[in-house]
C-alpha cells in the first residue's frame, strides 16, 4: 500500500513530493482495516492502471512487507503525477466554496483517492491514497503544515522554490510512518 | 539569527568588515545582548553554541519573541535608505517597499493562521472578502503591530475600493519625510503585507499607502485596497 504526497505552490509548481510505502498493513493496529479490504492493492483496478500506464507496476526493485504490489515509484510514476494534477481542477472548485483547509477525498481515480490540504497562503498539499484513513491523514497534513510554515519562515525560501531541506524530508517521512 | 559567518557570504558583496558588522554573532559581542544566550539555554540546544534547528522550535512561543520597537525602527530606517539608493523616483521606492512587505506578508499570513487554527480539529481559511478584510484590520494588525488598525472604510465612488486607516502607524513613528518627497508613504511596506495576505487568500488586489494627515493625527495613513474584478464577480456569485 503506498501513499503519494505532492506539495504545490500557488502557481501549481511542485516543490516537494514523497512516496511512502505503508508497512502498517501486516501490523495488528490496522488489522481490522486490512481485513475489510484484503486484496485492495492487487485488485483488478491495479491492472487497469497498469494497462493505462503501459508499464508493469510490479517491479519489485524495492522489497515491501506484506507482499503488496509496489505502485507509483517506478515506471508508472507519471500516472500518479497525472492523477494528482488532474485533481487540481476539482480542488480549485471546492476551495472557492468551502473554507475548510482539509478537503478529504475530493477526487477519485480508479483505486486512488485524492485528499488535499490548502494552507491560507494557497499552498496545496495533495495526497493520493488507496484506503480510507481520515484521522490519520488529517494528523499527517497537520504535521506537514507545521513543517511547511517553519520552512516558509526561512527568508531565503520563496513560495516557488523547491524544498530541499533534509530535516524537512526526514520529519515528513517520520510523520508518514506514524500516521499513514 | 545567530548563524555562523559562512551563511552571510550571500551578503558579502561588500567588504569583509561590513559582513562582520552584519553578523549577529559579531554584533552580540559588540553590543552585549543579554537575551542571545538566554534564548539558547531556554530552548535546550543539544550542543552548546549550536543554534537549534527551526524544525525543533515551537511556533507558538510568542511572548518572548517580541521585537523591540527601536531595533525595528533602526532596521526599517536602513531598509528605506538601502532602497532609496537603488531607485529612480518615489513611485519606484514605494513599489520596492511594497515588494519587501509582500515577502513579509506571506509569512505573516501563514504563521498567524497557523497559530490561530492549528489547535482546531477542522482548520478554516477565509474565502469571503469582508471577513478577510476584518481579520486584516484586527488579527494581522495585532500580529504585526500589537494593536488593531483604527478604521475600515468603503469608497463611496468606487465599489472595488476599500480603505484601512491607521492613525499612527508604528513603522512611521520615527520617520519624517522631507518636504520635496511628500508623496512618499513608507507604509507602502504595510500595503505590501496587506497585498500578500489578500493574495494568499485568493483575493487579488492592488494595495497602496497614502499619507492622509488630519489636525489630530499628523501621521494618519490610509491603506487603499483596489480589488481585482474577479474578486467582485466571485463575491456576487457567493452571495
Automatic annotation (TrEMBL), chain A:
GO cellular component annotations of the record: cytoplasm
Record InterPro entries: Longin-like_dom_sf, Sedlin
GO BP annotations listed: endoplasmic reticulum to Golgi vesicle-mediated transport
Alphabetized Pfam families for the sequence: Sedlin_N
Superkingdom of the source species: Eukaryota
Name listed for the protein in its UniProt record: Sedlin
Organism from which the protein derives: Suillus placidus
From TrEMBL, chain B:
Gene3D superfamilies from the UniProt entry: Trafficking protein particle complex subunit 3
A Pfam family that the UniProt record links to this protein: TRAPP
Comp. bias intervals (Low complexity): 9-21
Keywords: Endoplasmic reticulum, ER-Golgi transport, Golgi apparatus, Transport
GO (cellular component) term, any one: TRAPPI protein complex
GO BP annotations listed: endoplasmic reticulum to Golgi vesicle-mediated transport
Ranges for region Disordered: 1-21
Cellular localisation: Endoplasmic reticulum; Golgi apparatus, cis-Golgi network
UniProt record similarity statement: Belongs to the TRAPP small subunits family. BET3 subfamily.
Quaternary structure (record): Part of the multisubunit TRAPP (transport protein particle) complex.
PANTHER family in the record: 41-2 PROTEIN ANTIGEN-RELATED, TRAFFICKING PROTEIN PARTICLE COMPLEX SUBUNIT 5
Protein name: Trafficking protein particle complex subunit
Lineage start: Eukaryota, Fungi, Dikarya, Basidiomycota, Agaricomycotina
Amino acid at each position: 500500500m503506498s501513499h503519494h504526497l505532492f506539495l504545490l505552490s500557488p502557481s501549481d509548481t511542485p516543490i516537494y513530493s514523497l512516496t511512502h510505502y505503508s508497512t502498517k498493513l501486516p501490523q495488528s493496529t490496522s488489522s481490522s482495516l486490512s481485513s475489510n479490504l484484503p486484496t485492495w492493492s492487487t485488485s483488478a483496478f491495479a491492472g487497469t492502471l497498469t494497462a493505462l500506464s503501459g508499464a508493469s507496476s510490479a517491479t519489485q526493485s524495492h522489497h515491501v512487507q506484506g507482499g503488496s504490489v509496489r505502485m507509483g515509484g517506478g515506471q508508472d510514476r507519471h500516472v500518479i503525477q497525472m492523477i494528482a494534477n488532474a485533481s487540481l481542477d476539482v480542488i480549485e472548485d471546492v476551495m472557492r466554496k468551502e473554507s475548510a483547509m482539509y478537503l478529504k477525498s475530493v477526487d477519485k481515480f480508479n483505486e486512488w483517492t485524492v485528499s488535499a490540504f490548502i494552507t491560507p497562503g494557497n499552498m496545496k498539499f495533495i495526497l493520493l491514497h488507496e484506503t480510507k484513513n481520515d484521522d490519520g491523514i488529517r494528523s499527517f497534513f497537520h504535521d506537514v503544515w507545521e513543517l511547511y510554515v517553519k520552512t516558509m519562515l526561512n527568508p531565503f525560501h520563496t513560495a516557488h522554490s523547491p524544498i530541499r531541506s533534509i530535516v524537512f524530508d526526514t520529519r515528513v517521512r517520520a510523520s508518514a510512518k506514524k500516521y499513514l | 539569527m545567530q548563524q555562523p559567518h559562512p551563511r552571510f557570504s550571500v551578503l558579502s558583496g561588500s567588504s569583509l568588515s561590513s559582513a562582520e558588522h552584519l553578523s549577529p554573532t559579531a554584533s552580540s559581542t559588540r553590543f552585549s545582548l543579554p537575551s542571545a544566550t538566554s534564548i539558547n539555554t531556554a530552548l535546550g540546544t543539544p550542543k552548546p553554541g549550536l543554534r537549534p534547528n527551526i524544525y525543533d522550535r515551537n511556533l507558538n512561543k510568542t511572548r518572548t519573541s517580541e521585537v523591540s520597537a527601536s531595533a525595528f525602527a533602526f532596521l526599517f530606517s536602513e531598509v528605506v535608505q538601502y532602497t532609496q539608493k537603488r531607485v529612480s523616483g518615489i513611485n519606484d521606492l514605494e513599489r520596492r517597499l511594497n515588494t519587501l512587505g509582500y515577502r513579509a506578508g506571506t509569512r505573516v499570513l501563514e504563521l498567524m493562521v497557523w497559530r490561530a487554527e492549528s489547535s482546531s480539529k477542522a482548520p478554516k481559511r477565509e474565502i469571503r472578502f469582508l471577513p478577510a478584510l476584518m481579520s486584516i484590520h484586527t488579527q494581522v494588525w495585532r500580529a504585526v503591530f500589537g494593536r488593531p488598525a483604527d478604521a475600515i472604510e468603503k469608497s463611496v465612488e468606487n465599489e472595488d475600493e476599500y480603505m484601512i486607516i491607521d492613525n499612527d502607524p508604528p513603522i512611521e513613528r520615527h520617520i519624517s519625510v522631507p518636504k520635496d518627497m511628500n508623496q512618499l508613504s513608507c507604509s507602502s511596506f504595510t500595503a505590501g503585507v496587506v497585498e500578500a495576505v489578500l493574495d494568499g487568500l485568493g483575493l487579488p488586489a492592488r494595495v497602496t499607502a497614502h499619507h492622509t494627515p488630519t489636525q489630530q493625527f499628523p501621521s494618519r495613513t490610509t491603506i487603499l485596497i483596489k480589488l481585482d474584478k474577479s474578486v467582485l464577480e466571485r463575491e456576487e456569485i457567493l452571495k
